């Protein structure tokens, strides 16, 4: 599977996994509101026969909650929308009647408005997610992304070579895999190709141990923030196309010939931009790294002329 196809498949599997979690939470909410409505309506019908309708809606909510938990489906979302909308309207009407009678009903008007909104959102989720619910990814892929999400959520960058943290607004963690990045932000997981992640390192020092950055991710506005210097180096090496943990020698103080290293990197298929990024990740200034590339080209041209 090509990298971009793999990233898209993993993202689709995660979106489905997240949707299933949302439906389970919706089922639990339906059970809770159903029991409350059933109890209030059942007791209220002893003095007001119209409260029997509230009890009936509560019973339907309990059944719908069990349905969503046992077998999530597009039809379950429609049922959730219909019942919560009716329940919201019912509570608003009863609240208005109580208010007009001077018995207080503002709280039920508020609860009813919230329930009505919840019902409308269920219809919107149905329109948005029907295709995903009707075409679920393979179970092994769903299990894999669930494990990836659990792994990055519970891991600390200080303990992992392949995880970096960005102190932006909002802050996020990113796992640097060989062919992609896995971003954990605001309890959501995004699978991105290497080209989808753009980090600009500014010349400003955010603090003694942090570098200022501007991060661009798909479908988000650029985020300003900072990153610890050691994480910045890990990111630069990864962005240059290297696999984290590779034993590939990188240029630095004490090496006999950085010019020779540049030639070896080019022979291995790295572009000049990748070489510059690796040099910067090893502590070089960007201008010095580019000058080295130009100097290497100049020396090669000179040797060719004298040959």
Please provide a written account of the structure.
The protein is built from nine helices and seven strands. Helix 2 packs antiparallel against helix 3 (74-100), helix 6 packs antiparallel against helix 8 (272-281) and helix 7 packs across helix 9. It has a four-stranded antiparallel β-sheet, with helices on both faces. The chain has helices at 3-44, 51-70, 74-100, 106-134, 139-154, 229-239, 258-267, 272-281, 286-306, and strands at 163-166, 172-176, 180-185, 188-193, 198-207, 210-216, 223-228. The two termini are 47 Å apart. Residues 244-256 and 301-307 have low confidence and may be disordered. A hairpin with a 6-residue loop joins strand 6 (210-216) and strand 7 (223-228). The protein is elongated and about 90 Å long. With 307 residues, it is an alpha+beta fold. Helices cover 61% and strands 14% of the residues.
Q: Poorly predicted ranges (pLDDT <50, ≥5 residues)? A: 244-256, 301-307
Name the beta content range. 5-15%
Averaged pLDDT, please? 81
Strand order of the largest sheet: 1-2-3-4
* Separation of the first and last Cα atoms: 47 Å
Structural class: alpha+beta
CA gyration radius, whole angstroms: 29 Å
What string gives the helices and strands in order? HHHHHEEEEEEEHHHH
Count, helices? 9
**How helix-rich are the residues, as a percent range?**
55-70%
Total strands: 7
């Amino acid at each position: 599977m090509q990298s971009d196809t793999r990233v898209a498949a993993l993202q689709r599997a995660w979106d489905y996994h997240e949707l299933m979690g949302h439906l389970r939470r919706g089922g639990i909410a339906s059970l809770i509101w159903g029991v409350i409505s059933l109890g209030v309506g059942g007791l209220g019908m002893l003095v007001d026969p119209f409260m029997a309708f509230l009890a009936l809606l509560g019973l339907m909510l309990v059944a719908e909650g069990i349905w969503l938990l046992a077998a999530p489906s597009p039809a379950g979302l429609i049922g959730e929308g219909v019942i919560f909308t009716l329940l919201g309207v019912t509570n608003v009407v009863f609240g208005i009647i109580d208010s007009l009678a001077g018995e207080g009903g503002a709280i039920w008007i508020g609860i009813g408005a919230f329930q009505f909104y919840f019902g409308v959102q269920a219809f919107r989720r149905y329109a948005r997610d029907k295709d995903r619910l009707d075409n679920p990814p393979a179970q092994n892929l769903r299990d894999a992304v669930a494990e990836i999400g659990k792994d990055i959520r519970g891991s600390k960058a200080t303990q992992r070579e392949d995880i970096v943290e960005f102190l932006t607004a909002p802050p996020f963690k990113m796992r640097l895999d060989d062919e992609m990045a896995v971003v954990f932000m605001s309890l959501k997981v995004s699978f991105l190709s290497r080209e989808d992640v753009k980090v600009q390192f500014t010349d400003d020092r955010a603090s003694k141990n942090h570098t200022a950055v501007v991060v661009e991710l798909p479908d988000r506005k650029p985020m300003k923030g900072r990153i610890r210097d050691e994480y910045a180096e890990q990111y630069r090496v990864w962005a240059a196309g290297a696999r984290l943990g590779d034993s590939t020698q990188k240029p630095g103080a004490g090496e006999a010939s950085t010019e020779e290293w540049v030639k070896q990197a080019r022979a291995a298929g790295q572009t000049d931009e990748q070489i510059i990024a690796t040099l910067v990740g090893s502590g070089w200034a960007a201008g010095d790294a580019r000058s080295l590339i130009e100097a290497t080209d100049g020396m090669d041209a000179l040797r060719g002329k004298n040959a």
